[in-house]
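Checklist before submission:
- one chain only
- standard amino acids only
- sequence pasted in full

Submission:
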Amino acid sequence: MTAQVKSGFVNGTASAVNVELGWIPDHVRVVNLTDGNKINENWLAKVMTFTSGSLEIVSGDKVSQSATIYGYVKQVILDSGSYAGGDAAGWLIFDADQIFGTFTSAAAEVNDSGDNDLTASAANQDGIDIDTEVAATTTAATNIAAYLGSATASKGFTIGATVSADGDLLGYIATRNAV
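Returned file contents:
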């Protein structure tokens, strides 16, 4: 896959707005162009911390807690410890459309090993909201989220209702890295 970039404009409606791209971006920046008073950014990947890692995890591996809670790893960032020592800790990065179910803070296995290969945390999606001060955004209304599409609409991202100020012109730039 090659890197992708798309920019454009949408009308704020005070309701969530789905922006269809045909792909889910890694990063989105939305700027309120009417007032210039707010910039929202979000990295749309799902991020899960892990500890007690005893089996090396690489891109493409399946991490699961059950038959219905699993994801395919896009990137692994090892922060401390080692797999050989059974105390590897770090972050697992998943594309938003490659994680299924809701991970909890519990044991997980890698590639259906049948063992407790690591302890996972709940996967989350984080963004930032820049206006008079920088603040983290964690709710759907204040966030930019992955839009997985539907039978009649293609994938893209959703601009939350709070970001989608009624009657304001919003500019966006969405990017997706090459794999």
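Reviewer check: Residues 72 and 78 are 17 Å apart (CA to CA).
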